[in-house]
Structure formats: structure tokens, C-alpha cells
Design goal:
The protein is of the alpha/beta class. The chain contains 12 helices and 6 strands. The protein has a single domain, classed as Aromatic amino acid hydroxylase (Phenylalanine Hydroxylase, Orthogonal Bundle). Helix content is 50%, strand content 10%. The strands form 2 sheets. The protein has a 4-stranded mixed beta sheet with strand order 4-3-6-5. It is globular, with a radius of gyration of 17 Å. The protein starts with 11 loop residues before the first helix and ends with a helix.
Length: 243
């Protein structure tokens, strides 16, 4: 049975949590997030703003009109092969639950604020959205190979979740794991982090730990660079499968 968002079940606390988290990041992100994220968020402001918990029906209408994406409701983390299959179909996974007020700063598992505020706006950007879809397509095509599946998870982690992007001579944020987190979006300017240029071969071999704050990031030159790297990605994955 397909899961749906039961909008009437949201409580006053849910609305308050959404407002607190949204307003905090809207104040925190200017000068840190890439302007394209801010621009996409503004394009969605009629359906994605602090005043109310977003209604997925409204978000889906906006996404469908732009790049043909939609939100697929999931109970939480799902198997990797299912996740890649949905991405390949332009369906982005989101839970519908929100953290409690006592959990504003830390969660073990991503909630709806991370999924929606962090991930959804940039799906309005065509090169970025196409790159996300192609990660899913590569997962469907080569996911039977567990090494490749892990490599694609690493790529997703260091781009879609924790990616940085250059803006002239500055470093800006685009990864949803940073965008949606007050702590992470301030941490990337600490002196003890390492920022490397976007390099597919390095990323595919770079393990990550989900339970620890990040110390290494990869920085792209533009969103177009992500999509333009897909042919190289497929060559590297093919070589791994054939090895």
C-alpha cells in the first residue's frame, strides 16, 4: 500500500518545530548557502515557508511543473536498491514525521525537515536534478554489484548530502545534510576541516561515517559540473563491474 502524508495528523508542536527550524536556517544560511539554493527556496516560497508544515500535494504540483519530480513518502530509511530505483523515476524519498522540540539540534535519523527543507528546493535546478536522477539510474543499472552500490552511496553522501560549491573565491553550501543543520552549516567554516576539489575517483573510494560530524568535504565548481561528470562516472562503474 502506498504511503501518504496525513496532513490532519500534524500537531501544534509540529507546526511550531517547523517554524523554529525554518526561521533559524533562513537567518543562518545567507552568505553560507549557494545563492541558487536560496533562489530555488524563494521560487517555492508559496508552498515551502515557515508559516506551516508543507503539504506534499502542493510541493508535488510545483515540482511536477518544473522538472517532473515528486515526493515519495517512506517510513524512514529504506533499502538502497529501492532508494536508487525511486530516484531513477524522479521520485525523492521523504518521511512525514518531525522531530520534537527537545531534538532541534540532533537526530540520529533524518526527519521531514531534513528531507524537505534540505533536499527539495534544489530539485528546481535542472543540472542538479538530472545528476540526482542519474545516480539513481546508475544504481539501478549497476546496483547488483555491491562494491558499486557502496561507491554510489559515497558519491551521494559527498555531493547531495554534504557537498560544497565554489562561488568566485568563496566556498558555499549545497548539500542537504549541511543546509538543514544549524551545527553543520556553521562547522564547515571551522579551521580543522579539509575541502578537496570534486574528484570522482577519490569520492568513490572515500568511506564515510554517518554518526560523526564531517571533517572532509568535496567542492564542485558548478551544478553543471555534477551533471557533466556522469559519463566519467559510468566509465568508472563499468570498470569496477568488469574487474
Amino acid at each position: 500500500m502506498k504511503m501518504t502524508q496525513e496532513y490532519s495528523s500534524y500537531t501544534d508542536e509540529d507546526f511550531e518545530v517547523w517554524k523554529l527550524l525554518s526561521e533559524r536556517q533562513l537567518e543562518n544560511l545567507p552568505g553560507k548557502a549557494h545563492p541558487e539554493y536560496i533562489n530555488c527556496l524563494e521560487q517555492m516560497s508559496d508552498v515551502l515557508n515557515p508559516t506551516k508544515v508543507p503539504d506534499f500535494r502542493e510541493l508535488n504540483k510545483k515540482l511536477a511543473e518544473t522538472n517532473g519530480w515528486s515526493i515519495n513518502v517512506v517510513p524512514g530509511l529504506i533499502p538502497v536498491d529501492q532508494f536508487f530505483q525511486l530516484l531513477s523515476e524522479k521520485k525523492f524519498c521523504s518521511s512525514t514525521w518531525l522531530r520534537k522540540k527537545s531534538q532541534l539540534d540532533y537526530l540520529e535519523e533524518p526527519d521531514m525537515f531534513h528531507d524537505i527543507f534540505g533536499h527539495i528546493p534544489l530539485l528546481m535546478n535542472e543540472p542538479y536534478a538530472e545528476f540526482v536522477q542519474q545516480i539513481g539510474a546508475m544504481g539501478v543499472k549497476y546496483g547488483h554489484d555491491k562494491v558499486v552500490e557502496k561507491q554510489l552511496q559515497r558519491l551521494y553522501w559527498f555531493t547531495i548530502e554534504f557537498g560544497l560549491i565554489k562561488l568566485k573565491d568563496e566556498t558555499r553550501i549545497y548539500g542537504a545534510g549541511i543546509i538543514s543543520s544549524s551545527g553543520e552549516s556553521n562547522h564547515i567554516y571551522d579551521d580543522d576541516i579539509e575541502v578537496r576539489p570534486y574528484n570522482l575517483e577519490q569520492i568513490l573510494e572515500n568511506d564515510f561515517i554517518t554518526s560523526e560530524i564531517q571533517t572532509r568535504y568535496y567542492e564542485i565548481e558548478s551544478f553543471e559540473q555534477l551533471y557533466q561528470s556522469v559519463p566519467e562516472l559510468e566509465k568508472l562503474l563499468q570498470l569496477e563491474v568488469e574487474a
